[in-house]
Amino acid sequence: MRILRGFMSCLLLFMVYYPISQANSVQDTKQRIAKLDQKIQSLHGDLNAKQRKQKILDNELASIEKAIGEQSNQLSALTDKLKNLISDIKKREQRIQTLTEQQSRQQDHLIQHLKTRYQIDTMQPLKWFINRSRPEMLSRTLIYYQYLISSRKQLISNLHETQKTLCKEQQTLQRQHVATETLQQSLQLQQNKLEEDKHYRKNVVDRLQKEINVAEKKLANYQKNRDELSQLLQKLYRESKQKNTPPFYSMRHKLPAPVQVRNHRKAIKLNQGVLFPAPEGHNVRAVFPGKIIFSDWLKGYGLLLILDHGQGYMTLYAHNLSLLKKKGEMASQNEIIATVGHSGGLRENGLYFEVRYRGKAVSAQEWLLY
Questions:
Q1: Positive or negative, the Cα torsion across 33, 38, 42, 45?
Q2: Mean pLDDT for the chain?
Q3: I want to staple 290 with a disulfide (CB 3.0 to 4.6 A). Which of 6, 184, 272, 309 is the partner?
Q4: To which H or E segment does residue 190 belong?
């Protein structure tokens, strides 16, 4: 029996050699939350910067699109102007053609006039000699001669005016062609430049939007992880009750009995523990908040449940009929964790209770209040 008890002591010492400290878990969770907060803050700053940049680019893109719209209106107005100009050019070309034909007729008239004048000038001395005896014929000849001279001057004047108008129309037409082509090319170049700027900024905005989507997704994951850690931290706080629960070592002669029976005096000191006789199925309660580190059948102890209370302290509840808590779960003070039985070879129903420090059994009676 002593060999078995020694073996169990070594086993339990091994089981609690690495005690689970709730305080450390809380601290680790706090550190993880702090790191996540730093990442979230940094990501928020980066995301805000990207969103500000996106807003600037959106405004630039809107300005470019407005400018493109204005240029399109100008090009449309220019197109209408070109149509009117083309129509005017056709009329002007027809007018030039008319003036050219008029100039040709005037030139023909002038040539005919010169021929007539030449003929008159050739025969004039003879006519004057012949018509000397007939003064009325001489007078008519002189009048006709003056008419020819006046007509020639008018023809020459008209011809000069036609040539002047024709030259002016041709120069105006040429200037209109050059100005229109220059304006059209300039507007087209501006339109192409604006389209290039629009395409470039659109690509930048699209790329930036993808980066923002990735950052937002990453931020959402960080926030989700932080929320989960915050929930875990709250759970750890609730489970550990560090603010309201004193440390285990201060609970000497203050722990309640693990089973509620009318007469605690019937409790039997057994080795370093206490055996509480109780009816089968009677509730077994945790004497102090802790974490379940063992919940299974163990030879010599039957269905055994062990709570770790931190700082190297633990309590054992043996020979149970059933175990109501699993390994890894938390138990609060006075929470029902098992039911009384006689598993593991106990002759009559009861709960065997131990207090251990760093794996070694200490006097349980010094911790219980009864």
A1: positive
A2: 77
A3: 309
A4: helix 135-240
How far is Cα 97 from Cα 42, in angstroms, rounded to an integer? 79
Give residue-wise pLDDT tens across range 17-50.
Answer: 333 344 457 777 778 888 888 888 888 888 888 7
pLDDT score recorded for residue 28: 79
Higher-scoring residue by pLDDT: 121, 9: 121
HEC string of 247-310 equals CHHHCCCCECCCCCCCCHHHCEEECCEEEEECCCCCEEECCCCEEEEEEEEECCCEEEEEEEEE
Q: Cβ of 51: how many Cβ atoms within 10 Å?
A: 15
Residue range 140-184, pLDDT digits in tens: 555 655 665 666 667 677 767 877 887 887 788 788 778 778 877
Domains of the chain: 44-223 (1.10.287.1490), 246-366 (2.70.70.10)
Q: Which phi and psi angles does 50 have, rounded to 5°?
A: -65, -40
The pTM of this model reads 0.40
Q: Give the C-alpha separation, 13 to 219, whole Å.
A: 45
306 has which bridge partners? Answer: 294, 316
Q: Could you give the angle at which helices 135-240 and 22-130 cross, rounded to 10 degrees?
A: 180
- DSSP character for 246? P
CA distances from 102 to 118, 160, 162 (A): 24, 11, 8
The answer to whether 155 and 112 have CB atoms below 8 angstroms apart is no
- For the chain, what's the residue count? 370
Under a CB-based contact definition with an 8 Å cutoff, are residues 337 and 325 in contact? yes
* Alpha-carbon gap, residue 240 to 308, rounded angstroms: 11
Torsion region of 343: left, alpha or beta (phi above 0 gives left; psi -120 to 50 gives alpha): beta
Query: How many helices (H) and strands (E) would you count in the chain?
Result: 3, 10
| Cβ atoms 315, 353 nearer than 8 A | yes
